[in-house]
Write a structure and sequence with these properties.
Elements: E1 6-9, E2 13-17, E3 23-28, E4 31-34, E5 39-42, H1 46-63, E6 70-75, E7 78-82, E8 85-86, E9 89-96, H2 100-104, E10 112-122, E11 131-132, H3 134-139, H4 145-168, E12 171-182, E13 188-191, E14 199-203, H5 213-216, H6 222-234
Amino acid sequence: MKKGEVLYKGKAKSLYRTGDPGVLLVEFRDDITAFDGQKKDVLSSKGRLNAQVSAFLFRLLERKGIATHFIDMPDESHMLVKALDMIPLEVIVRNIAAGSLVRQYPFREGTVLEPPVIVIDYKDDSRHDPMLNDDLIIALGILTPDDLAMIKEMALRVNSVLREFFASLGITLVDFKIEFGRTPDGKILLGDEISMDSMRLWDMSTGKSLDKDVYRFSKGDVMEAYNRVAERVCAEDKEVCK
C-alpha cells in the first residue's frame, strides 16, 4: 500500500496516511531512546525486530478474542493498522515489582504482585507522563467510568494471554505498557505496539533482562537481547518473521 504523508513521528515509530482513510501505515524505525529522549541511538534491525514481535503478539491476541488495530505487515518493518483516535493514556500492567514502581514506592524488586497492578499514566511528554487515578481520568473527560472499567478489563485479558505465552518461551513477563484508541464508530481497540520497547522481560533461566532496560542501564548488548526474544517468538510463527 502506498505510503502517504506523515501524520506523526514519535521517538521510534512514524505514522503515515495511505490511499484508504481508514488504514494507516506504521513504520518501526531503528531509533531507540530512554529517559525522555535524553539517551538516544540508532541500532540496525531494531525496528524490524519490534515490528515482527508486535505483529505476532497482535495476531495472538486477536485469536484470543481481543480486538486490536492490526491489519497486516506489508514488509518486515511496516505494519498496516486501522485508523484510531488514540486515547492519551498509557496503561501499564505490572506482574512483578521493577523499574519506577521500585524507585518511587517501598517495593522490593522482584516482588510478585498478585493480583497484577494496573497503573495508568497521562500521555504527555511535556508533563513527563504523570500517573492518574480513576477520578482524574473521569474528571478530565478522557474516559467514562464504563469505558475505563472496560479498558482495565481488556488490559488484564492481554496480560493473561501474554504471560502464558512468554512463560512457554522461558520468559517472565514482568510488566508492559499498552495504549488504546477509538474507531470512527466509537469502538475501543488495542493500538500502538507490543514489543521489547514496551515490555519488561526477564529470562527465566538466568534472570537477565531481555528488553529496553538493557539499553537504559547499559546492561550489555541490547540488540542481542532483542534478537533472543524475536528468535523465540518467531519459532512460533515463521510467516511473521520470514
